[in-house]
C-alpha cells in the first residue's frame, strides 16, 4: 500500500516559531554591559548593534533612517513612493551628518542677501560657500545675513573673502584643530585650483565624536539602505549612487522571475544587495548560488505582526525556522552572506533567538513603529497614545503602491497585511536602548560575549505550553499604576 500522501504529514519538519523554543542559560565570561553586539552584515558594512528597520511606509523614512544609523543600526527606506521621493529621502539621510558634505548648497556672488537667507531657511543650514564658475570665492553665514541692513545687496559685498579652506585629504582631527585655531565653524574643501569639492562643519565633527558607534560610509556620512522591487532596475540605478545597500522587497523571492531579475540587478549596482524574502533552505541555496554578488538574505515569511499571508494562504516560513534553514544553506555553500531575520521580532528575546539560530541582524517593523521617528504623528485613542502601523500588503498600502509603481502590478487579488495601531513609545533612542539592554542581558544569560559566539554556544530547548505560561508573568494581575512602596 502506498503512503505517498500520508508520509508527507508523517515526515513533516517542525516549522518552529520563537514561542516554541527558549535559549538555555550558559556560562558567562563577561557581564551584559561588556557584551559586544557588533555584527558584520556585508564585507563592507558592520553595525554596532544588530538592528535594521523595516522598509515600510509607517516605519522607515528619513528620521528613522538617520536615527537608526546614529545609534549603530541601519534603516531601509521604503519604496511606497515615486523614485524621486525615495531618492530624496536617501539623500536627506546622507546630508544629515557627514565629515565632508559633497552635495553642498552654494550661492553665486551676484545673488542677494535675501536669496541667501531664503536658501538657508529652506534647507535648514547656517552657511553657504559662494561660488563663481565652480571656484570658491567666499563664504556667507547666517550671522552675515542677519547683520546686513539692506537685504537687496549682492552677497559679494557681505561675504567673507578668502575663507580658511582645506584639501580633500584632510583628517577630522586636522579639520577640528583648524576650526579651533581660526574660530570658524565651516571649512570649505577645495582642490588646488580652488574648485569647491565639499564642506566640513563643526557640528558634524562634534556629532561624529559623540557617537563613535554610528554606522557611517567611507566619507563619514550616515549609512542608509533602500528597498527596491527586483524588477525595478531603474529605481535601483537611481538609488545606487546614494545608498550603501539595497534590499529587495518581495514576499516570495523563490520565484524564477524574481531570482533572475535580482541576479541582473546584482551585476548592475555597486551598493550591497540583500535579497529576499526566503523561507526555506532550497530558496536560500538558490538565491546564494544565483545572485552574485549577494551581501545577505532577508529571511522569514508571514511572521510579521501585520501579516495575514500565512492565515490567508496557509503558506508560511516562521522566522526562527527560516533563519536556521538559511544559515545552514549559507554554511553548506561556504557563503559569508549574512542572514537578516525578518518578521515577528517583538523584543530582545526573539532577537536573541534569531541571532542564536544563525542570523547576523534582525529586521524590525512592529518594535520600532511606535517610536517618534517612525512616519506620522501619534494619535490619541481612548486616553492613550498610539501610532498607525500597516503591512505593506494591506489594502491601503497596496492602493498607494499600485497607483505609483508600475512594477507592483496586483498579481494577487488578496490583501496580505493589516493596518492598526501600536502604542506610542517616544524617542527611538529610548526604544533602541531598552531593546539593546535586553539583548545584552539575553546574551549574558546564554553565555555569549558576541554575536558570533552566540552562534556557537547558544543552545535551544523546546518549551511546553505549561513552561511557556510559567516563564511569563502569571497569577498576579499587573498594575496599571504603582503604589508607593518601601
Ligand atoms: P514585524 O513583526 O516586525 O514584521 O512587524 C515586519 C516585517 O513584516 C513583513 N511585512 C509584511 N508581510 N504582509 C506580509 O505578509 C504585509 O503586508 C507585510 N508588510 C510587511 C516585512 O518583511 C517586514 O519587515
Describe the structure.
The protein is of the alpha/beta class and about 475 residues long. The chain folds into two domains: about 25-95 and about 215-470, Aldolase class I (TIM Barrel, Alpha-Beta Barrel), CATH 3.20.20.70; about 115-200, CBS-domain, CATH 3.10.580. It contains 18 helices and 20 strands. The chain has an eight-stranded parallel barrel, surrounded by seven helices. A hairpin with a 5-residue loop joins strand 9 (about 185-190) and strand 10. Helix 2 (about 60-70) packs parallel to helix 3 (about 85-95). Bound molecules: xanthosine-5'-monophosphate. Xanthosine-5'-monophosphate binds near residues 344 and 391.
In short:
This protein has 486 residues and is of the alpha/beta class.
Number of domains: 2
Name the CATH superfamily classification of the largest domain: Aldolase class I
User: Approximately how much helix is present in the residues?
Assistant: 25-40%
Arithmetic mean pLDDT: 93
Low-confidence stretches are none
CATH class of the largest domain: Alpha Beta
Number of strands: 20
What's the arrangement of strands in the largest beta sheet? Answer: 4-5-11-12-13-14-15-16
Helical segment tally? 18
User: From the alpha-carbon coordinates, what is the Rg to the nearest angstrom?
Assistant: 25 Å
The assigned structural class equals alpha/beta
- CATH architecture annotation of the largest domain: Alpha-Beta Barrel
- Assign the CATH topology of the largest domain: TIM Barrel
Task: Note the beta-strand portion.
Answer: 15-25%
- Outline, from the CA principal axes? elongated
Bound molecules: xanthosine-5'-monophosphate
Distance between the termini: 72 Å
Q: In this structure, how is the largest beta sheet organized? A: 8 strands, parallel, barrel
Amino acid at each position: 500500500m502506498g503512503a505517498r500522501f500520508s508520509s508527507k504529514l508523517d515526515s513533516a519538519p517542525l516549522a518552529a516559531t520563537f514561542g516554541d523554543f527558549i535559549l538555555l542559560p550558559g556560562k558567562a565570561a563577561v557581564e551584559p554591559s561588556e557584551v559586544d553586539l557588533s555584527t558584520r552584515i556585508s564585507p563592507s558594512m558592520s553595525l554596532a548593534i544588530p538592528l535594521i528597520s523595516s522598509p515600510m511606509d509607517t516605519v522607515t523614512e528619513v528620521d528613522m533612517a538617520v536615527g537608526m544609523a546614529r545609534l549603530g543600526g541601519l534603516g531601509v527606506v521604503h519604496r511606497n513612493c515615486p523614485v524621486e521621493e525615495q531618492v530624496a529621502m536617501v539623500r536627506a539621510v546622507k546630508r544629515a551628518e557627514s565629515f565632508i558634505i559633497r552635495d553642498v548648497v552654494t550661492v553665486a556672488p551676484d545673488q542677494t542677501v535675501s536669496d541667501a537667507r531664503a536658501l538657508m531657511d529652506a534647507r535648514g543650514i547656517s552657511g553657504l560657500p559662494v561660488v563663481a564658475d565652480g571656484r570658491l570665492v567666499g563664504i556667507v553665514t547666517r550671522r552675515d545675513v542677519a547683520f546686513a541692513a539692506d537685504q537687496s545687496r549682492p552677497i559679494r559685498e557681505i561675504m567673507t573673502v578668502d575663507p580658511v579652506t582645506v584639501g580633500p585629504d584632510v583628517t577630522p582631527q586636522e579639520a577640528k584643530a583648524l576650526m579651533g585655531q581660526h574660530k570658524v565653524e565651516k571649512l570649505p574643501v577645495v582642490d588646488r585650483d580652488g574648485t569647491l569639492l565639499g564642506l566640513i562643519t563643526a557640528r558634524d565633527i562634534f556629532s561624529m565624536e559623540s557617537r563613535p558607534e554610528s554606522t557611517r560610509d567611507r566619507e563619514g556620512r550616515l549609512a542608509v539602505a533602500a528597498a527596491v522591487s527586483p524588477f525595478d532596475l531603474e529605481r535601483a540605478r537611481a538609488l545606487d549612487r546614494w545608498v550603501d545597500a539595497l534590499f529587495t522587497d518581495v514576499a516570495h523571492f523563490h520565484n524564477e522571475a524574481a531570482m533572475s531579475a535580482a541576479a541582473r540587478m546584482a551585476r548592475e549596482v555597486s551598493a550591497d544587495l540583500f535579497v529576499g524574502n526566503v523561507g526555506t533552505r532550497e530558496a536560500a541555496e538558490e538565491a546564494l548560488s544565483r545572485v552574485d554578488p549577494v551581501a545577505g538574505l532577508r529571511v522569514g515569511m508571514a511572521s510579521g505582526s501585520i501579516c495575514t499571508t500565512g492565515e490567508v494562504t496557509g503558506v508560511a516560513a516562521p522566522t526562527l525556522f527560516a533563519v536556521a534553514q538559511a544559515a545552514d544553506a549559507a554554511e553548506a555553500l561556504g557563503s559569508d552572506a549574512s542572514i537578516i531575520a525578518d518578521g515577528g521580532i517583538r523584543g530582545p528575546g526573539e532577537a536573541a533567538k534569531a541571532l542564536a539560530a544563525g542570523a547576523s541582524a534582525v529586521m524590525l517593523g512592529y518594535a520600532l513603529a511606535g517610536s517618534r521617528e517612525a512616519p506620522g504623528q501619534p494619535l490619541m485613542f481612548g486616553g492613550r497614545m498610539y501610532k498607525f502601523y500597516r503591512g505593506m500588503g494591506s489594502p491601503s498600502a497596496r492602493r498607494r503602491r499600485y497607483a505609483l509603481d508600475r512594477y507592483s502590478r496586483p498579481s494577487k487579488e488578496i490583501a496580505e497585511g493589516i493596518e492598526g495601531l501600536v502604542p506610542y513609545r517616544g524617542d527611538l533612542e529610548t526604544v533602541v536602548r531598552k531593546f539593546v539592554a535586553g539583548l545584552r542581558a539575553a546574551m549574558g544569560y546564554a553565555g555569549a560575549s558576541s554575536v558570533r559566539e552566540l552562534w556557537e554556544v547558544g543552545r535551544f530547548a523546546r518549551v511546553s505550553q505549561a513552561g511557556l505560561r510559567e516563564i511569563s508573568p502569571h497569577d498576579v494581575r499587573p498594575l496599571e499604576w504603582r503604589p508607593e512602596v518601601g
